[in-house]
Amino acid sequence: MRSVVRLLLLTTLVVLVSACASNQQEEVLPEKTYYENARDAMNSGNFNEAEQNLDSLETYYPFGRYAEQAQLDLIYARYQNLDLEGARAAADRFLRLNPQSDHADYALYMRGLASYNLDIGLAARYLPIDVAARNPGEQTQSFRDFSELLSRYPDSQYAADARQRMIAVRNRMAELEIYAARYYIKREAYVAANNRARYIVENYPTSPIVEEALVILAETFRFLDFKKGTQDAIAMLRDNFPKSSAFNEAGEFEPDVLKGESRSLSSVITFGLMGDE
């Protein structure tokens, strides 16, 4: 028994000595060396190596000459490395440590860009995943970041791109609503589909998907026998999309989005109300 204890103590001692030796062998480079290594790595597209040098720079020289620029470079390196959550975290950290920085607009822009692309990552590039069917949380966050950028730095060089991405985000949000409306139509939950279509028209009137939303709105109103709602929706569709395929050659409203309904009106309304809770 004593021999076993001695063996365990000896093993532990060897491990501790080895760890100390490895720590002693780790050489701390000058601040400028880490920075130049990181820049060279980024210029050559080696963002893994760049990130390692930037992490070391922050670890050993957190308040050094290159600290602020290293934090900015780390945001970029992580973004290019497809570490979008890491890029967003690095942007958060930069804004927290340097709230008055001249480069705060860049950090805000990159934080929004990371969120913008977070739910359209590698999986969506190679798999048939409908982006409109995804959780809108990341898109909402990116919209907030870009909105904050435009509010605080309207003359920023990143403002124009941020503005265009905000439009894209709103279009994605509209697509999410139309996706839900189509789903409810398949389930014959027409009240719920009507609610989704109306939400698009009221909140995303400039979205390309608003034409389809108006068609769904008019058709579901007509099915539910709401004459005024039907007339208003058709009139709005005619004013904004006179060449819509929902109009036949005679100019009459003839959509086919509700083909195949087979249940009574009362069951549809009941199901619709339950389905949209």
Explain the overall architecture.
The protein is mainly α. The chain is built from 13 helices and no strands. The model is unreliable at 14-24, 122-133 and 261-277 (pLDDT under 50).
Could you give the distance between the termini?
68 Å
Helix content: over 70%
Q: Major sheet: size, sense and barrel closure?
A: none
Strand content: under 5%
| Radius of gyration (Å) | 29 Å
* Nearest-integer average pLDDT: 83
Individual helix count: 13
Tell the overall outline: elongated
Low-confidence stretches: 14-24, 122-133, 261-277
Order of helices and strands: HHHHHHHHHHHHH
Global structural class: mainly alpha
Kindly state the number of beta strands.
Answer: 0
Care to give the gist of this entry?
The chain is 71% helix and 0% strand. With 277 residues, the chain is mostly helical.
Annotate the secondary structure layout:
Blueprint (H helix, E strand, L loop, with lengths): L1 H24 L5 H13 L3 H14 L6 H14 L3 H14 L6 H15 L3 H5 L10 H16 L6 H28 L3 H14 L6 H14 L3 H14 L24 H11 L2
Throw out a few tags for this protein.
13 helices; mainly alpha; 277 residues
